[in-house]
Amino acid sequence: MKRITILLLTAMCLSSARAQGVTIDSSDGTSDFNLWIAAGVSKKLSRQWSVDLGGELRLADNVRSVGRFSLGAMVNYKPVNLLRLSAGYEFIDSHSAAKNKADYNSEGGWNGLNYKHTDAFWRPRHRIKAEVSAEAPKLWKCIRISGRVRYQFTYSGALSVPRQSYKFYSSDQAPKDAYDELDDEGNKIHHDAVPGHVRGDLKPGYPVSDPKEYSATKDHCLRSRVKVAYDRKRCAWSPYVGFEFFNDLGSSMTLDKTRLSVGCDYELTKHHELGLAYLLTTEYDGAAKSRIHAINLGYNYKF
């Protein structure tokens, strides 16, 4: 059994590393700081079966707004001591803040004024997941190495979000009827007394409703994680470090993001457990990448 477990852990690491065979530009993109707060309940039904229920709230935009919240449930089955099979469902509702985006003209230029305003909105998602978790026998009676491979399917329905298009005058202009006289040479006389359009004035008929349409999406993702933890018997503290790959199954196993986690779990009593961790998530979009720094606070009740 020990050999089988070690082979499973090795396969998890190799599949993730080989799947990320893409070239990533080292230039930094955007970054954000989040606070993630999670709470859960675990019920052991028998020696082999257990159920997990939990929810999470994520504060994004440097902890200035709610980024998302989620509720989910997992059913776990342990055929042998060091192996666990799990399946579950999670409802996720993500929030996008209102934003203004430059509205370019037909020549691709921008006068510094025209823009489109998209209202803030929530977008629900439904996620089904199945995973295999394995642990290697403890090293020196205190070091536990574990691995997890999770497949998740996420569905988002089509959505129409209110958006308004604003166009402004880009320079000071006089209306056409301001040139109502000719001089001796036949040139039009501009009457300064006639009011014109000042740069920045909103053009007639604007803003115009221009809803932002989001199509339904179906995402298939493979998540592979390796974790090393200090786990000594009768010790309430359990510090750990983990690393996880997120691969897009719908795009030839393209590496979407990675996540480094460094934290510690603390067992208050037999039933109550607290967790504190720092997470660094790096998201890849072609040559660009962005980072999310997060503090994760967790609580779990076991019975």
Overall shape: it is elongated
Q: Structurally, how many domains make up the residues?
A: 1
The largest pleated sheet is described as: 11 strands, mixed, barrel
Q: Beta fraction of the residues?
A: over 45%
Helix and strand sequence: HEEEEEEEEEEEEEEEEEEE
Q: Cα distance, first to last residue?
A: 29 Å
**Strand arrangement across the biggest beta sheet:** 1-2-3-4-7-8-15-16-17-18-19
- Helicity level, as a percent range? under 10%
**Low-confidence runs of at least 5 consecutive residues:** 1-28
The radius of gyration is: 28 Å
CATH-defined superfamily: Autotransporter beta-domain
Quick one: CATH class? Mainly Beta
Q: What's the overall average pLDDT, rounded?
A: 84
The total of helices stands at 1
The CATH topology is what?
A: Lipocalin
Derived structural class:
mainly beta
DSSP summary, beta strand count: 19
Note the main attributes of this structure:
303 residues, mainly beta, 19 strands, 59% strand, elongated
